Structure formats: structure tokens, C-alpha cells
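Worked example (supplementary).
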Amino acid sequence: MRLRFHPGRLARRLLLAMPVLAVFFAGSVCQARVKLITLPVRERVEVQLDNAHATLVEEERIVPLVKGENQVDFSWANTQIDPNTIVFRVVAPFGYKPLDVKVLSVSYPPNEAALVWAVGSSDSGSAKVRISYLLGNLSKSFNYRAVASKDEKSLILSEYMRLQNFANEQYGNTNLFAGYGKSFLKPIGLNETKEMLVQKFEKVPIKKTYACNPAEYGYLDQPQNKLRVPMHYLLKNDQANQLGAHPLPYGKVRIFIDGGQPGQTAFLGEDWGKFTPIDDEMKLYLGVAQDIVVKRTIEKNERKPVGGNLYHHEVILKYEIENFKDQAVTLDVVENLRHVRNEIRGDSGRDVEWELLKETTFQGSYDKERSTFEQLTFHAPLPARAKDGKAEKVTHKLHVLIKNEW
Amino acid sequence: MRLFLATFCLVLVLVGPLAADNIDLSTVPHRDSVQLTIYNSEDITLVRETRKVTFKKGVNPLQFSWANTLIDPTSVELKFLTHAEQLDVLDTTFPHAKAQMLYWNVKSELDGEAMIQITYFTSGITWSADYVCLANAAETQMSFEGFVRVHNNSGEEYEDAQVRLVVGTINLVEKIAQLAQVPVAEVQTMEADKLSDLKKDATHRFMERASGFGGGKGGEEGKEKEIVKEGLSEYFIYTIEGTETIPNGWSKRMRSLASQQTPFKIQYRYRPAEYGEQLVRMYLLTNNVESQLGTSPLPDGIVRVFRDNGRGGLSYLAQQATKYVPIGDKIEINLGADPEVIFELIKIRAFRDELWLQINGTSDFRKIGGDGVMRVENATLAGWDDHEIYSQRIRNYTNKPIAVEIRRTLPGHVVFRSQLEPTLHDYQTVQFLTRVQPAKRADLLFEVVRKQGINAKQNNVTLQTAEIKP
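After joint prediction of all chains, the assembly is encoded as:
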């Protein structure tokens, strides 16, 4: 990108391969030959990455001006500058002279990636100008590295911003700002990818969950009614949990576990972390737990007439759970009642109306925070297996009346 | 001096009247002035140029040619601004062998100089408007700048031309109807050629009036040109101070208005029909004097919005196309969703009541729960009320209180119960407002009762005040 500059009328202009800013000192008549060109260099560059969809580049240059009308020529080639977004602002006079500097007009030559500002100056002197524009192919993404402690009670979460420069333009030391956190002063080379640590959160408490939910996770072995039991780490994005500084952007999370000794960090897998607003949870999938076996059967399905073709359905779901792990864990038993209704009588397309009945065995009823109007979450504590390797079978029942179906 | 390919000239032919002579001598009178009146939505520009021509007594042939330009040959007209009583156009000839050329034979009783005016339409000159808003870091005021950009792809360079831009849509159909003396409905059925002629005529007449407006002060070197805005009937004419030279293929952008401290408000809106399924952040301002605007309507154009990021730089917020904004009307700029404001609709509960059975397909209906209903055979459910209880949750993680407006369209026969003091935006759309303090969460509870089957007697929403329990 270059900026050229000259006083007077439209002078002969050159299209250069690099974007150019030039200041022309030439005669005042049309078609004047260029006598002198100054090429003001970039004094400062900022790349604003705070907009989710666009990258704004701002560059400051010191432009020498003569009294009267000056021409400042800005041209670029092979870069995706959106010429309609270019804003030219005079930040301050540079030096001792107070100058009144104004953009009089902008001219766009045909078939060229360029424009010419006519700039009026009250006196001769220099002015600091700031040129801002949206630049395509200079994009950012986020990714994370999460290292869980050996006891899986906390993790160290490092958030990285990755800048990819396919804009066909290089910048010297550039201030990069993601919209939060610190800004970075880095050069950006052509076709370069840079990864920067935006924030590092130490000792973020995590909760490891084991959950079954036939509607969402399905079966591990359907003929045997064995449910799939995925494991997750849950991180709450709030200050109580060492986070909450800003929403966590969408990005890939590489998950590791600290083995307790140097060099014993093991890779657990990776998952996509969804955009997580403050106070929301980021849920990271760790794989399927093979040591927790959940057998789910529909023990009872009884239709109760209400009148005409209208019925209630009394349903008992039975869960037989065995924990073959050496430590006690809590299983989240999640049941979507719309899914249950569809299982027992087909989908009526209506919202499910339900009532919990007395044979439900889960202690403390359902977890209201983690339940919705049609999906209930119960917690089932499971003891560790016995020393002889035998797992205790824990049986729970969910007794529910599904109402007013036809 | 012209730089580009178009050859466009007026020639006073000195060797006798039109003949097949092979040797010609001609003089080329210069343009004294050019005026362009550009009408942006029809791609039509009225060019009015004046030239001084010396006539001798008798018949004077004048040649006018316009190679490689987009001039409409049928629109070219010659007028005498001085000595009109001594000068007459005898005939106009479009020579067969030479396209883009015509001859006028002017009969003169004058032996001397006269000022002539040539007018014609050309296409390829257009203009567009755009706006740049720069909000301060506190987001209370913005600088609002309007620009006009004139594009010249007409094939001709109009040097030192006075430029006028017509803002607004000329209703050509009515004017064509008036000219043709036919009802408006018949305009569509007219032959294409005739319609085209009348359209030009209508535009021409409008522009005749429009082009008479405004002064042509010379722009001072090094100073920004003023763009004078004048109302004309239903339209606005922007006249660019002084003259402009826009070479063929170039375009030029000039500031048409600027305010430094336009106050604005921020509102968050949920209006799915207008902004999609998201809560969007809006900048709201008004095109009036209090906003340091209001001197003219704002023509259609792209608005680009930036904000001072408080660290000496800008944040790019949004760009959007705006429609024509009359004086006094609102300018609403949608900045998109704000990641610091979380907007969720949570369904808390669903149930049904007012269940009615139709007995044996007859007109006998009985309510469930009534006597003997259990024993009725061959009865089907014919009417019920679906109840849905919702929490509209808004979490504000910004550092300022936010004003939120929510519109929900609820088709069918619906009762909307809440303590939200809602209003009806229309018969099926409920609107309610709230404010959420910084770092706070609002849970706006409401119940929607949808009357179904035979219970549906209306197709509208009724508002009821009631306490809703989660």
C-alpha cells in the first residue's frame, strides 16, 4: 500500500504493484509532469480484530502539505481493500505550525485500485493522517489449550488468537487488538500465520461429568438397552471460576492431562468449544466412558382414558447402573420426555405435558438448573467398585405421567 | 482540453451549405459553459452547454458530432440565447453515412457573434450517496458525514461543468400521461418508442425547471466546496459549488453534509421480521436540526459506522443500505447482535386445558371434566387451549444500562398474559419494553394461550395482565 501526494491537478499516475501512498509536488495544470514525489511511510499500524466479520486496518503517516490544494494518491494492487470503506482522517498537524487540513474530494480513476484525495491545507507543513480501511483475507480465529490437573478438578486454559495473513500485504510492527485482553505489537509478514496467547487462566475449576441421554447420545448397544455414557469437562465462564472476563469465542480446544511429573502430560483429545457468553458453561467432550454401564428399560406403559380419544400415559423408566471404576462418580441421567412420549405412542407434534409420580427414586428430584420444560436431569451417585472387582448395581426409576395426548 | 477517446464537437462549416465536397474548412467554437443535471435512478443526465458562434448573413451550416459517447441523438436541441430574433434553424440533417453527427442549417440576419445553447440527454453519468458515521467512545454522539459520488462513464469529459444532482424519484408516468393526454392506466400499454419519447420529454421538462436553480459560485482553491441544497416541489437539487471536471471513466466523491455532534440513542431490538432471529443493537438518530442535520433529505445510500475505540483508533461496526430519509424522519442503523448482551427465550412449562370433545361427529360438544364424559364412546377432541409459559431472559454484560424492545408475532387466537405492560404493535404482534442494568439479568415472564380447534374464535391477540409464576 502506498500513499503518494502532490499539489495541483490530476497528474500522471503510476500503478505500482505494492499499495502506495504518495505526495506529488508538481505543476498545477492538468497533465503536468511529476516533478517530485514523496512517499510517506507508515508511522504506525493498527489492526482491529474486534469485529466478528471484518478486519479494520488503520495506518498513520505523516504527509507534507503545501498551502492550498494537495493531491494525495493512495493505490493498492492485489489486495482486497474495500475502497468504499477507506476513511481518511487528519489526526493532528505534525510540527509547530497549526494547520487547517481538510479533505476536499476523492477521485477514483478508472480500472485502477487507487484513489486520489484532494486535500486543502491552510499553510505549508506536515500533518499526521490516519487511513482506515477494511481488508479482506486478513482473518483471525481462536483456539485453546486446556491442561487438566491430575485429579481432574481444575485446568489451565490458554486462549490463543491465530492471525492468518493472506491479504498480500505485509505490515511492520503492528498493534493487533482482538477486542479484549491485551494488544500485541508484532510484524505481520506476507502469507504468515501468527498465533498469540491472548489470555491464560490458571486453576479454572472444572467438573467432570458422566451423562446418559438416549435422545441426545443414543445407545451403546441398543438390543441390550445399554446407553452411551459420554464424559465431559464443564467450565463455567464466570469470575468465581477464574474466568468471566469476556465471552469465550468459538474455537478448537486441545485437551491434555497433567501426569503429575514433568513430561507426563498426555493428550486427551480435542473438541470444538462453542461461543460461551459470561455465566454460561463450556462443555468439552472427552469420549465415551466404558466403565459405567447403564441399562434402560421401559418397565411400564399404561394408557389411561380421559374421555373420547384423549389419554394420559403412565410410564416407568428403569435404569440399572454399574460403576466399574475405582472411584465413586455421579452419573447425570437425562431424559427427554418428548422423546419418551414419541417412543411409547408416536410423535403427536405437541409439546409434552407431564407430571412426576411417586415411584421416582432419584434423590432430590430433578436438577432445575439443568432441566428444561421437557428434558429432566437427575443425578445418580455411584459407588466405586468393590475391592474384589464387583460393581454394585444401582437401580433407579423415573415414574412419569404424560398427559392429554390424542 | 480532453484526454480521452470521445470526440465530441461543434463545427462551424465555412465552405458553403451541405454538399459532397471533399475539401472542408471549419472552425471549432469552444464550450463557454456546461451544466450537468444528473438524475440517478433513471441513468439520464441533461447536459446544457453554451458556446459563442460567429454567424454571417445567410445560411450557416453547423455540424455537431458525438462519436463514442452515450448521447441520445433525438434529444439534441439548439437554442439561440442572444439575437434569437435574427437566427433561425432552417433544418436539421442526420447524414446517412455518418452516425453520431448532425447538421443544422442556421439562417442568420446577423453578421456577428451570438451565444447558442445546445441541450441533450446522455446516459452513463450517475451519482450515488453514502454516509460515514463515527461514534464517540461513550456512544452518545457521532460525526455524521454525507457524500455524493459522481460517476462518469458517458464517454465524454465535461470540463469545468456545473453539476446538479436531483434527489428524489420523479414520477414520470404521470407526467407522461399528462403529455400524451391519456389516462395513467394507458401509459403501460403505449408503444415502447412512443413511451420512450414521452419519458424523455417528461424528464426534460422536469429538468428544465430543475436546472434553473442554484448559483454557480466559483470554488476557492484549497477550500472545500459547498453543496447547495434547494427544494424544488417534491424534489431536492444538490448543486456543487463552482465547477467540476470529471474525466471519462473516473468518479469523484464530495462531502455533501457534515455534522460533528449528532446525538443518538442506542436501543436493542428483537424484531424477527425486520432483523432476523436475533437481538440487534441499533443506533437511532433523526434527520433534524437538533441533530445538526435536517437541511435536506438524505438520499438512498450506504451508511458505514465506526466507533472511536478509546485507544486512539476506530472500531468498524457495520454498514447498511438506507432508504431516502426525509427531513425530520428517523435514521435507524442496525449494528447486528452484541456478544455482550445475551438474549434467550426459555420455555418453562407447557400444558393444555379447556379440552372439548365432539360427540359422534354431531354438534354436541362436552368439556372434559364434566359429568359423564368419561363414558361417552366415539368422541373426539375438537377444541383445547395450549398454554406455554416463557421467560424472556436478557443478560447485560455491557457497562451501561440497555433499553430493549421486543416484538413477538403470535398467529391465531391468542391470549398474552404478563405483567410486562405490553402493547399491540398490530393485531397479532405483541410489543414490550424493558431496561436491563449493567451486569444484571432480566427474566420477563409471560404466558401464551393459543386457542385451538373449536376454541379458536378469533385470529388476534388479546392482552391480559396476570402474575406469571415460573
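Two points are worth noting when inspecting this output. The first helix of chain A runs from residue 337 to 345. The radius of gyration of chain A is 33 Å.
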